[in-house]
Amino acid sequence: MNFLENEITDTGERTLESVGEGGQIVKxxxxxxxxxxAALCAQIDGELIGIAASSFTVGVSFYPPMVMFAVQNSSTTxxxxxxxxxxxxxxxxxxxxxxxxxxxxxxxxxxxxLSTTTAETGAVLIDGSPVWLDCEVVGEHMAxxxxxxxxxxxxxxxxxGIEPLVFQASGFRELETPVAA
Length: 181
Hints:
By secondary structure, this protein is mainly beta.
């Protein structure tokens, strides 16, 4: 049974399925949750290193300001990137879908054609992003097949009028005009 086609009982209530070891039903359930997309990048020994993450979370702590994301334990980029003194986090804009796919690729030049800004700290930021954060890694915590990375925000820049890139159901989405609360 497909996650999005849950059995409806006579009372109109859905039923829950056991996930066992996870698998496709868990992936489908998690894909239903929309998220922003962040690029995490730095310059290390003169080379630009970066990844894209849809598991990025802000507001982990306001004092000190902290953010987090989860990275697959199989990543070959994170072991290199995590050793940078500072990592730039760019919340990608709705014009960055191609850049996101490029940064998420397993081969080729992830930065070909991308316009970036490198901070004095070595943090690399993607131009045209609504939010830039310059961060330091403060903790890593194993979580199944991923590692949760907690980072302290050292500096920030926010630009009004730029819509974020949203990822949901294995595709990119655009935000609509907000509905009054």
